[in-house]
Recover the amino acids of this structure.
């Protein structure tokens, strides 16, 4: 029997790579996208991966419970991956209420739809290392206490715990993946890696002279999105649902990541990088460094791409796009 998967957030970075992975495994993939007045749903990432004709796009919004119930009734998915969110930390201070409605309560809407009409479906929640925030341990694992530092992280923490709660209350096969930052040529341009690789490509091609960033001393554990969607799928193949940290176990400063991008393009970082207070955040997450040993031991998951190779791939992709 062909398995059916429903992915919320299909138009985003992870939605595209996860759809590609599931299609390669023979799944029938339904991608939920929210309607907008421009008639075309933004399938540019699916097009980039040449899978836009293979994914069945369905209308839906995390804020609309009755629509979600209808979708689940119609599709009868075996697996549901909840990737949709207001996902940008910096915007969450500008839109804290929307962020909590979508990124927090939206998770309950999906879980309710499953509990009511499809309790046998397996569920994945896209949780985030941002939940560790003001880190309580220099290396963060599944047992490290959380201390969220932005409205986004507070909302994600709710999403994580409601997932755990539905598992414990109703016996749903619901897993929460605590994923550390993961990037790719399909990353949104507002996130720092892509802002840097796109900026470097623009400077290289003479379209721009400077790149303006905020706090470049922040440290992140960056991995490749293509690796990380594998871990999502593996979680739903386990007999028992659980929570897993997905990370590389290495951390680097924003500055180091920038240096790799500039040097790959043959540019001198100090001639172009400008620190701009406008990009500092009201509260910062200074250090993220994940311990992926549980994912390795139980899922057999390991990252395959180094941060250095990924940043070079992203610079090359941005140069190609701009040319
Ligand atoms: P993106 O920002 O690329 O994608 C977010 C998706 O959510 C988009 O498809 C967006 O649709 C959709 N969306 C937003 N609001 C709604 C809504 N109200 N109803 C339905 N869909 C909506 O994120 P990523 O692919 O990078 O990340 C996937 C998930 O993983 C997110 O939940 C993110 O918070 C989480 N995460 C990501 C990490 C990372 O480093 N990438 C790290 C840890 C967690 P539209 O195109 O219409 O805006
Ligand atoms: P996040 O970890 O989910 O917030 O991912 P981002 O890629 O948005 O940010 C990673 C880190 O880069 C944070 O510590 C930011 O403060 C820092 N940073 C520094 N300058 C910038 C910038 O101009 N844009 C973004 N998005 N982040 C920046």
């Amino acid at each position: 029997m062909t398995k059916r998967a429903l992915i919320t957030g299909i138009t985003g970075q992870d939605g595209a790579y996860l759809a590609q992975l599931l299609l390669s495994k023979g799944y029938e993939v339904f991608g939920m996208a929210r309607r907008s007045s421009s008639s075309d749903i933004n399938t540019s990432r699916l097009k980039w991966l040449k899978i836009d004709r293979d994914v069945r796009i369905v209308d839906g919004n995390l804020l609309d419970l009755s629509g979600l119930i209808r979708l689940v009734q119609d599709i009868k998915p075996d697996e549901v991956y909840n990737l949709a969110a207001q996902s940008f930390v910096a915007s969450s201070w500008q839109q804290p209420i929307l962020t909590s409605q979508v990124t927090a309560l939206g998770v309950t809407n999906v879980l309710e739809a499953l509990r009511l009409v499809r309790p046998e479906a397996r569920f994945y929640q896209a949780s985030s290392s941002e939940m560790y925030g003001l880190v309580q341990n220099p290396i963060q694992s599944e047992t490290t206490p959380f201390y969220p530092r932005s409205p986004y992280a507070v909302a994600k923490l709710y999403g994580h715990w409601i997932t755990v709660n539905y598992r414990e209350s109703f016996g749903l096969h619901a897993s929460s993946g605590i994923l550390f930052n993961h990037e790719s040529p399909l990353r949104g341009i507002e996130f720092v890696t892509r802002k840097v690789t796109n900026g470097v490509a623009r400077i290289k091609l003479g379209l721009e002279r400077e790149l303006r960033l905020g706090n470049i001393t922040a440290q992140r554990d960056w991995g490749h999105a293509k690796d990380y969607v594998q871990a999502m799928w593996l979680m739903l193949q386990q007999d028992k649902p659980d929570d897993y940290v997905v990370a590389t176990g290495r951390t680097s400063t924003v500055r180091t990541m920038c240096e790799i991008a500039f040097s790959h393009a043959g540019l001198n970082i100090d001639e172009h990088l400008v620190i701009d207070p406008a990009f500092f955040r009201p509260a910062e997450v200074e250090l993220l460094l994940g311990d992926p040993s549980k994912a390795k031991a139980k899922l057999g998951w390991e990252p395959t791409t180094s941060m250095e190779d990924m940043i070079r791939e992203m610079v090359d992709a941005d140069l190609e796009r701009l040319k």
Observations:
- Residues 8-15, 34, 42, 61-63, 83-87, 102, 126, 128, 179, 181-182, 188 surround NDP (ligand 1) (CB under 6 Å).
- DSSP finds eleven helices and 13 strands in the chain.
- The radius of gyration is 19 Å.
- The chain has two domains: 4-182+222-246, 188-220+251-288+305-322.
